Amino acid sequence: VDIAHARDDSGRLFLAEQAGRIHVFPGTPDASRTGIFLDIHARVRSYASGGHNEEGLLAIAFHPDYPTNGQFFIWYTASSPLRNVLSRFRVSADDPDRADPGSETVLLESPKPFGNHNGSTLVFGPDGYLYFSIGDGGSAGDPYGNAQNLSKLLGKIHRIDLNRQENGRAYAIPPDNPFVGRSGACGEIWAYGLRNVWRMSFDRQTGELWAGDVGQDRWEEIDLITKGGNYGWNIREGFHEFRGRSREGLIEPVTEYGRPDGASVTGGYVYRGNRLPNLRGAYVYADYVTGRFWALRYRDRQVTMQKEVLRQPKNIISFAEDPDAELLITADDGKLYRLEEVPVGP
Fold first, then answer.
1. Residue 82's closest CA among 58, 105, 55, 63?
2. In contact, 157 and 200? CB cutoff 8 Å
3. Cβ within 8 Å of residue 295, ≥6 positions away
4. Do residues 178 and 228 touch, judged by C-beta distance below 8 A?
5. DSSP for 61-86?
6. Which residues on neighbouring strands pair with residue 72, listed in sequence order?
7. I need a surface site. Which of 102, 162, 212, 252 has the fewest CB within 10 A?
8. What would you report as the CA-atom Rg of the chain, rounded to the nearest whole angstrom?
9. pLDDT tens digits for 288-343?
């Protein structure tokens, strides 16, 4: 469900399986086998252990200073009570290809009422802070209004400082977060009004934060996330009314698509690699259900290009970048893929 690299010169890739294992292997197409970097399946609530098919180990990220501190972070669902968990682990002291399963420090837990809509993505920003998304709590239509409620972590993107601790937390809240000091608001919140962001990423060149937000019944959307922004759920779905008409104070998507083009967006990356010169600078994303890929270009708050670049039948779970900014893609057939440009006739 997710791929990351260790921010070192090893060339290794780390692949998170939903059931609760992380594999490590050389980041080359001819890699013949993987090793188990971490196995915490006994702690993870997933479909394999009787949970919802959206639950499990869902995201992994390595600290910017991983080569010196050995820290990495994961996001998973757990039982009794039903909750999302953000945890820190450390690599083993004597084996760089093994994590220490006893090193877990739980940084944050977010109770959730239903099994679905867990997000999440863990990504370090250019500022060194960790950004992470949480879904609205599940069911359908956000029945408890979590996404618009600033006192709840659900339905938001958050930003925290993992290099400091304060006020009894295992992390600190950056003082310039938009809702710090507001009565009743969670200081961790960076942006809100989101249904279930499934993958977000920073543009390596501009520092902009892009997100794919999974829709309800009709519309999938791509958002450009800004500090303190309200993205409208559950007042709006995409550009359209859901449980309200007002657009006042709401940030509209960069783009949207509806049925039958797809039914569950998988957010991607602004491509900054070299293998695909015609896509350089374009945001590439896909749909989990239909397997269609699109690329868009965005400038001066306008979409200047948007087109389908691939149509294929596999369910697309996640995008990732390798150390050279080349795109990697996971599908639900247990294989990893890269895109390849093909000649187009006149």
1. 55
2. yes
3. 271, 279, 282, 283, 284, 305, 306, 307, 309
4. yes
5. EE-TTHHHH-EEEEEEEETTTTEEEE
6. 62, 89
7. 102
8. 19
9. 999 999 999 999 999 999 999 999 999 999 999 999 999 999 999 989 999 999 87
Q: Around Cβ 247, how many Cβ atoms within 10 Å?
A: 13
Residue-wise pLDDT tens digits, 177-190? 999 999 999 999 99
DSSP state of 258: E
| CB-based contact 210:221 (threshold 8 Å) | no
- What separation in angstroms does the CA of 150 have from each of 145, 228, 295, 345? 10, 11, 33, 52
Q: Which residue bears the tokens 């995201």?
A: 59
Contacting residues for 230 by C-beta, under 8 A, at least 6 apart:
148, 191, 192, 193, 249, 250, 251
The dihedrals phi and psi of 46, each to the nearest 5 degrees, come to -140, 175
pLDDT for residue 247: 83
**What residues are paired with 61 via a beta bridge?**
73
Q: Which residue has the higher pLDDT, 123 or 247?
A: 123
Q: Quick check: 116 and 135 in contact, CB under 8 A?
A: yes
Q: Residue 131 is encoded by which pair of tokens?
A: 């950004």
Taking the alpha carbons of 46, 91, 188, 191 in that order, is the dihedral positive or negative?
negative
161: which DSSP letter?
B
Residues 6+ positions from 126 with CB-CB distance below 8 Å: 202, 207
Contact status, residue 198 vs residue 204, Cβ threshold 8 Å: no
Bin 249: left if φ > 0, else alpha if -120 < ψ < 50, else beta: left
For 13-41, the pLDDT digits (tens) are: 999 999 999 999 999 989 989 999 999 99
pLDDT digits (tens, 9 = 90+) for 65-120: 999 999 999 999 999 999 999 999 999 999 999 999 999 999 999 999 999 999 88
Asked if 162 and 130 touch (Cβ cutoff 8 Å), the reply is yes
User: Is-contact 89 71, C-beta < 8 A?
Assistant: yes
The residue assigned the tokens 């779970």 is 317
Q: List the beta bridge partners of residue 90.
A: 71, 100
In the chain, the amino acid numbered 68 is T
